[in-house]
Structures are given as structure tokens and as C-alpha cells.
Design goal:
- The protein is an alpha/beta fold and 482 residues long.
- The chain has 15 helices and twelve strands.
- It has two domains: 152 residues, Aspartate Aminotransferase, domain 1; 260 residues, 3-Layer(aba) Sandwich (Aspartate Aminotransferase, domain 2), CATH 3.40.640.
- Helix 4 packs antiparallel against helix 12 and helix 13 runs parallel beside helix 15.
- The radius of gyration is 25 Å and the shape is globular.
- The structure holds pyridoxal-5'-phosphate.
- Pyridoxal-5'-phosphate (PLP) binds next to helix 6.
């Protein structure tokens, strides 16, 4: 006899929504608790060997219970974060994230919109956020833009548009495999390493990235820039683009953007600004003059996940010439042709402005945060971080055993203890490993520097006092044990 079995079709939705809902509410409560008590925990702690072992476990082929998996998360994963949400994390340049943006990110994941374009709310929100960001940085409303995964990706997009415009031939069809003069890109010795990655990926090559010397303030020497351009022209090369930096990663220096804009104008070169964090100084009412000229670039890249305190990932590229922006990336395969009506009316609006086709709804956390907090508060927080850097500088200058290693024009403070590089490095390691604070380090003038970069809305002045006390305590202990 033929037996018809009821077909059991599969899905990732829960059998029991009530159970998952209860678990979800617990996760949310726990995460609020985690954020509320972040100050009470060490900034960072190393992952113990037993945990590392369990995180190397084999592929789970069979299901396990969601609640048990969540318990595992709480035991193995949650206690060992980077630490950048902590008030005393000032390493590299990492933002803190925020509770409101966390919620918005959850909503965006739930909607799971595909933001290549399409006729949908997420595309309208991204357009609106891009207009807001252009306005905040002083760019016209006709400016084109795109949210990206990172500052690196945003900078790459800016430089790609520059290359395609300046090459003088159809780079998209012919690449750079032609006989034209080699394209040359100019930055300073302080330009972030994204630039090397970008010229390598764009086929320009790192030999064609000129690293112009900087002055005592770590700003690009403009005479040297002019000389380098002239020398390259005299040698038959093709100066393409100057990268100005607003807020260098080492010391927070900002190049003379107005002067570079003038040079690019005179030389008919593309002006790109890497304003990864420094561009946002334009929002800060007390310190906005630092970002003077930020509005003059042909393209600018900056991060929302640094000095706008958004959760990762969120970068942004703005391109003044919208047509040039599109011309660098737009293409239309038949399976993505726009239809007159329906969801596919503008299917590739954002895919035509960058590298990714499938894109998540990054704009929602920015939209939510700007609405809930208002753009003024972000400006005040940036002011507060700059003031905290000035306060830390004063504390360092008043300690005879500490030495400031670079000017502090923005939110980055580089200093060292009066002892060897090895002792200074050990101080950094002990600060990190004790969980007291996380500074990072760099080399300034060939000497080891303890580096503090403040893009943290949770830091308070007392945190910097505690930090100096800890630096001196570790230094004292190291001196004694010598
Ligand atoms: C962080 C940073 C970048 C790179 O941005 P990501 O978002 O980390 O890719 C580029 N330039 C400067 C000055 C930076 O600080």
C-alpha cells in the first residue's frame, strides 16, 4: 500500500516563537546590563587557554539548544572583547558604539534589507543620511556618497574615481595597460597605510605613491609637495591626486587643506581628503577651525565608527561630482535591469557608487542616532574628547618624568616616560594586561611613544588622572626592579 507521508519542510524559524522571544528579551536585558556596568570591568583581558581550546571545537553538524548556546556565548565570548566600549580604551582609533545604535542595528538585522538600491525605505534612509553627512561637512546637497564598511574602503572609492577621471582614457575598459604617462599620487609620510593598499589595488603601484615630508607639526610640507609635482612633470609623469589628511593616525595632525586645494586647482589635480576621524572636528563648535578646508575636496572619506561612536562597520565616501562617481562603478547586467515600476525601479542606486552589490542597512544606526541625540551632541562630545586630550597633555607636561613627543592639535597624545624604549613598551603592556587602560604605541622620530587616541564618549577626566597614576606606578616598579 502506498503511504503518503506528510511532508516535513524545513525552516530556520523557531518551532516555538515564545521560547525564542523569551530568550531574546533576556539577551537584550543582559546586554543593557553589560553596557551599564562596563566601567566596573577590566578594559581588556587575554582569552584563557581553556576558552581558546573550546573556541577551536569542530563544526557543529547537529543542532543544539539556543539557550545553551547563549550560555556558551556568555561564558566564552562576551567576557573577552576588544575593550573599545570601555571608558579607558584609547588604543589605535576605535569608536565606542552606543546603546541606541546597538538597538538600531538589531532592527536593521531584523528587517535584513538588501541595500543595493531598490524602491524601499532603506534606500531613502541611506540617501537622507548621506545628505545629512554632506551638510555636516559643508558639502553641497548635490554631492554623491556611499556608506562603506570602512575608511579604507571609502578612501579606495575616492581614489578610484580620481584615477578614472584623471587617466584621460577609458580606464574601465583598458585598465592601466597603456602607454600613457604613469599616474602619481601624493600624500605625506604621515598618510595612513590605506593609501598604499589603494594604489596597489588600483594598478597605480606603490612606487608611484610619493610620501612628502612633514614639518615639526607633522603637516605636509607644501614646498616639498610643489617640488615633487614639478619634478614628476619634468620627468614626463602624470600627477594625479593629492591626499590631504585631516587627523593623522600618529599624532592627529591636519594638513593645510586650504593650501592643498589651491595647489590641486593650479595643477588641475584631484584633491582627496582622508578625514577618517579628523573630518568630524568640523562638527565640534569650539574646535571646528581645525577642520578648515575640509569642504574643499573633490572626494573625502571618513568613518562613522570612529568619531561618531557608531558600532562597526560604518565608513562614508563623499564625491563632489556625482556623475564621475557613478561613471567609476555603474554597470547593468541583464538580470539587474531597472524596470519602470515595482521594487526594481532603481535596483542599483548604491551598487553603482561602490564595490559591493549586496549591502546591509548601515544607515539605520546613523539615522536613529542623529535623531535621538541630535547632531549638536555629537559636536559637543568631539569637543569634549579634544579638551580631554589637552588636559592629558597638561598632566604630562607637569610630570617631570614624562615627555610629550608631539604637539596635540586634536585628540591624539603621544608621550613617553624618561627611560628606554623597552621600559616604555613594558609600561604599555602592563597597562593593557592589568586591564587598567588600553593605550597603543607608535614610533615618533625613531623613538617608542605611548599613544592615546580619544574617540570615546564614555571617558571622563578622572579616567585620565587614573591613567597617569598607573603609568607612573608601573614606571616606578620597573625602575625599582632594574
Ligand atoms: C582608521 C583610519 C583609516 C582607515 O579606516 P578604517 O575604517 O579602519 O578602514 C584611514 N585613515 C586614518 C587617518 C585612520 O585613522
Amino acid at each position: 500500500m502506498y503511504i503518503h507521508h506528510a511532508m516535513q519542510e524545513l525552516t530556520l524559524d523557531p518551532d516555538n516563537w515564545t521560547d525564542l522571544r523569551t530568550l531574546g528579551h533576556r539577551m537584550l536585558d543582559d546586554m543593557f546590563e553589560f553596557l551599564e556596568t562596563v566601567r566596573e570591568r577590566p578594559v581588556w583581558q587575554s582569552v584563557p587557554a581553556s576558552v581558546r581550546e573550546r573556541l577551536a571545537a569542530p563544526l557543529p553538524v547537529a543542532p543544539s539548544c539556543a539557550a545553551a548556546t547563549y550560555d556558551e556565548f556568555k561564558e566564552l565570548i562576551l567576557p573577552y572583547p576588544t575593550g573599545n566600549i570601555h571608558p579607558r580604551f584609547w588604543g589605535w582609533v576605535m569608536g565606542t558604539g552606543s546603546p541606541v545604535a546597538m538597538l538600531a542595528d538589531m532592527l536593521a538585522s531584523g528587517m535584513n534589507s538588501h541595500v543595493a538600491g531598490y524602491d524601499q525605505s532603506a534606500s531613502l534612509v541611506e540617501d537622507q543620511v548621506l545628505r545629512w553627512l554632506a551638510e555636516l561637512l559643508g558639502y553641497p546637497s548635490t554631492t554623491s556618497g556611499i556608506l562603506t564598511s570602512s575608511g579604507t574602503a571609502a578612501n579606495l572609492i575616492g581614489l578610484a574615481v580620481a584615477r578614472n577621471i584623471a587617466a584621460g582614457h577609458d580606464v574601465r575598459a583598458r585598465g592601466l595597460q597603456h602607454d600613457g604617462a604613469p599616474l602619481i599620487v601624493y600624500g605625506s609620510t604621515e598618510t595612513h597605510s590605506w593609501a598604499q593598499k589603494a594604489v596597489e589595488l588600483l594598478g597605480i603601484g606603490s612606487d608611484s605613491l610619493r610620501k612628502v615630508a612633514v614639518d615639526a607639526n607633522f603637516e605636509m610640507r607644501l614646498d616639498d609637495l610643489r617640488d615633487a609635482i614639478a619634478a614628476d612633470r619634468a620627468n614626463g609623469l602624470h600627477p594625479l591626486c593629492v591626499i590631504g589628511t585631516a587627523g593623522t593616525v600618529n599624532t592627529g595632525a591636519t594638513d593645510d587643506l586650504r593650501a592643498i586645494a589651491k595647489i590641486c586647482d593650479d595643477e588641475r589635480m584631484w584633491f582627496h581628503i582622508d578625514g577618517a576621524f579628523g573630518a568630524l572636528a568640523r562638527l565640534a563648535p569650539k574646535h571646528r577651525a581645525i577642520a578648515d578646508g575640509i569642504e574643499l575636496a573633490d572626494s573625502i572619506a571618513f568613518d562613522l565608527h570612529k568619531w561618531m561612536y557608531m558600532p562597526f562597520e560604518a565608513g562614508c565616501a563623499l564625491i563632489r561630482d556625482a556623475a564621475a562617481h557613478r561613471a567609476a562603478f555603474a554597470l547593468t547586467p541583464s538580470y539587474l535591469t531597472a524596470l519602470e515600476r515595482g521594487i526594481a525601479a532603481k535596483p542599483l542606486e548604491f551598487a553603482a557608487r561602490g564595490i559591493d552589490l549586496s549591502r546591509n542597512f548601515k544607515a539605520l544606526k546613523i539615522w536613529f542616532s542623529l535623531k535621538v541625540h541630535g547632531s549638536d551632541l555629537f559636536g559637543q562630545l568631539i569637543d569634549q574628547n579634544i579638551d580631554q586630550a589637552a588636559y592629558l597633555r597638561e598632566r604630562i607636561e607637569s610630570e617631570p618624568s614624562l615627555e610629550l613627543m608631539a604637539p596635540v592639535p586634536l585628540n591624539v597624545v603621544c608621550f613617553r616616560y624618561h627611560a628606554s624604549d623597552a621600559i616604555n613598551q613594558e609600561i604599555v603592556l602592563r597597562l593593557q594586561e592589568s586591564g587598567a587602560a588600553v593605550p597603543s604605541s607608535t614610533m615618533i622620530g625613531g623613538r617608542f611613544a605611548i599613544r592615546v587616541a580619544i574617540t570615546n564618549h564614555r571617558s571622563r577626566r578622572s579616567d585620565f588622572d587614573f591613567f597617569i597614576d598607573e603609568v607612573l606606578r608601573h614606571a616606578g616598579e620597573l625602575e625599582e626592579s632594574r
